[in-house]
Design brief:
The protein has about 240 residues and is α/β, with parallel strands linked by helices. It is built from nine helices and nine strands. It has two domains: about 60 residues, no CATH class; about 140 residues, Mur ligase, C-terminal domain (Protein-Tyrosine Phosphatase, Chain A), CATH 3.90.190.20. About 40% of the residues lie in helices and about 20% in strands. The strands form two sheets. Strands 7-6-5-8-4-3-9 form a seven-stranded mixed β-sheet, sandwiched between helices. Strands 1-2 form a two-stranded parallel ribbon. Helix 3 packs across helix 4 and helix 6 packs across helix 7. The longest helix has 16 residues.
Length: about 240
Amino acid sequence: MDRPANPSNFTYLSDADAIPADSVLVVLNPGWGDTIQANKAGLTEAGDVFTINKADKPGVEQTRKDLLESLALLAGLDLATAVNGLSGFSGVKGRLQIVSGPENSRIIDDSYNANPDSLEAGIKVLCSFKGAPWLALGDMAELGSEAADLHREAATTAQRHGVRKFFGVGEMSCLASEEFGAAGACYDSIDDMAASILSQIDKDVNLLVKGSRSAGMERLIGLLTQSTNQTGDSNAV
């Protein structure tokens, strides 16, 4: 590679100057390429720690599978053995974690926190699943004077991506429910919201639960799953 015209602003290191890293972190994105491409590039051989960035984007499951297959091949394991070894991994609670819901529905627990961007990312994940996408939203905090408008925009964003039902709790989320229209509902408490969802949910529903920490939407997760027979299955998206 040609050096810049003014090299005085740059410091060049020789191989002798290089300091070996203690650990190499490899960051991947959904859509990174297939297993063969990764092995050709020597990517899996170079890394000590692997992480998938933008794990709320479509295609993350294929990325995990490709990475796992690459690492299994490198370790001399078959894919089934590798998958079994990671079967107990459940991801980070409240961050796009899939749990079994009532009536064999699917709940996407993203209740840890919320802002407009992360909400839209979660909605995209929600609508990537087969079934009826529902959204339960608690207020998004710290939005300042734009809070009302941003919550209304959240409702139109949900509609644009295909969300069919909208459940809101909290002053701002109730504005969003109103903006959503006839399929939007507003509740005074999480208990009331849970009761309403439980009376309507069925096996074809995928429910995204989202809200800032102050909204306490993890309580909704607890109310919806407390009567569900858990099999121990929960996976981070």
